[in-house]
Write a structure and sequence with these properties.
This protein has 254 residues and is an alpha+beta fold. It folds into 3 domains: 41 residues, Orthogonal Bundle (Arc Repressor Mutant, subunit A), CATH 1.10.10; 99 residues, Roll (Endonuclease I-creI); 76 residues, Homing endonucleases (Endonuclease I-creI). It is built from 10 helices and 8 strands.
Length: 254
């Protein structure tokens, strides 16, 4: 039975101290369904002591690797998604097979954030998903929700903004490593009556979500990086000083 409103009513009655049997009778649902809803609610909040899992800094007073979190947040906003499973959640970051170093850095960030089991590398056509299971992914990335990111609001929580302020370059690096790149652009100019070709490096970031784009532009502004939109969904950093800053703190994929 998949009725969110009925489920919320059942959980509210259970929290008031009413038994599973009575809740099932009042709402006309099977008693086993009520028990399952209660079990999954306890599981979602990490209240099942028999199940071992790496501690989450949002649920427990444990150290947080802010740099690893900010980098993984950038990767998740760009090319990541969270899937709900019967007893856990999984996060998957899609990485092009051309960048094995990026895959390993993504896996390292997951392990630094939630020490414990090793992330899996799931091969797909043309890319590899770096995947890790944990019941805490929705705690760590509350932007998780139904549908594609560009079809729903993506807003950072206050505690996420605090981490980004502490590690802004890690977020920018994660975003560029997911949905961005460093490449060489070229143009031509007339010099003394002769057309000459000039090449210059630039960084690009493409994303359909205006909210995610705003998160990046706000962070770049605070870092003093000049940018402009080549298209509404394509951001470009091409000024020499800004590219030098990006080279120092972000760098190309590898």
């Amino acid at each position: 039975m998949n009725d969110p409103d009925l489920r919320r009513q059942a959980l509210a009655l259970l929290q008031s101290g009413i038994s599973n049997r009575e809740v099932a009778h009042r709402l006309h649902v099977p008693r086993g369904t009520v028990g399952y809803w209660l079990h999954m609610e306890r599981f979602r909040h990490g209240e099942l002591p028999a199940r071992r899992t790496a501690p989450c800094f949002r649920c427990h007073d444990v150290y947080v690797d802010s740099q690893a979190y900010a980098y993984l947040l950038g990767l998740y906003l760009g090319d990541g998604h969270i899937v709900t499973h019967p007893r856990s959640y999984s996060i998957a970051i899609s990485c092009a097979d051309a960048w094995p170093g990026l895959m390993q850095e993504c896996a390292d960030a997951m392990t630094r954030l939630l020490p414990g089991s090793t992330p899996n590398f799931v091969r797909r056509q043309g890319c590899t998903d770096v995947k890790r299971y944990s019941q805490h992914w929705p705690c760590l990335f509350p932007q998780h929700g139904p549908g594609r990111k560009h079809t729903r609001p993506i807003v950072l929580e206050s505690w996420q903004r605090d981490i980004v302020r502490a590690e802004p370059w890690a977020l920018v690096r994660g975003l560029i490593h997911s949905d961005g790149c460093r490449n060489m652009n070229w143009t031509t100019r007339m010099v003394a009556g002769e057309r000459k070709r000039y090449e210059y490096p630039r960084y690009l970031f493409a994303n359909e979500s205006t909210d995610i784009m705003r998160i990046l532009t706000t962070t770049l502004d605070e870092l003093g990086v000049e940018w402009k939109f080549a298209r509404p969904n394509l951001l470009s950093v091409a000024r020499r000083v800004s590219v030098a800053l990006m080279d120092e703190h972000v760098g190309p994929k590898y």
